[in-house]
Amino acid sequence: MKQYVIDQLRESDYDRIRKYLATHAESAAMEGIYYVDLPDILYTEMQKTHNHCQPYYFAVNLTRKQVGFEWLIRSRNTLRCACIGYATQAQRDYIIAYADGMLDSLRIKL
């Protein structure tokens, strides 16, 4: 899986990130997994035409030692479709900015 990983978290970092994601993302059934909706302005041309597959999101996997931001863009409504795939450059830039912005807002220095 391609992803942006931030590791070597301290225990206090984990707790702050968990609280942040609980407020700014949707929790999945599995503990430590969160869904963040991708802004529709960043959808690819195909994703824009697949109304039945929208909205799209990326997953965040938080453990006590690291947080990973997956680059696989998924559909909330469909498991398999041509519109699901790895992030474009603009989508990757958004995911990295989201992750770095989260760390900045929490004042976490690594």
Structure, described:
The longest helix has 18 residues, at 89-106. The protein is α+β, with helices and mostly antiparallel strands. The protein starts with a strand and ends with a helix. It is built from three helices and seven strands, in the order βαββαββββα. The model has no long low-confidence stretch (mean pLDDT 95).
In short:
By secondary structure, the protein is an alpha+beta fold.
Helix content: 25-40%
Share of β-strand residues: 25-35%
The global form is elongated
Mean pLDDT: 95
Unreliable stretches, pLDDT < 50, 5 or more residues?
none
The major beta sheet can be summarized as:
7 strands, antiparallel
Query: Secondary-structure element sequence?
Result: EHEEHEEEEH
Layout of helices and strands:
Layout: E1 3-7, H1 11-24, E2 26-27, E3 33-37, H2 45-49, E4 56-62, E5 66-70, E6 72-75, E7 85-86, H3 89-106
Antiparallel strand pairs: 1-5, 2-3, 3-4, 4-5, 4-6, 6-7
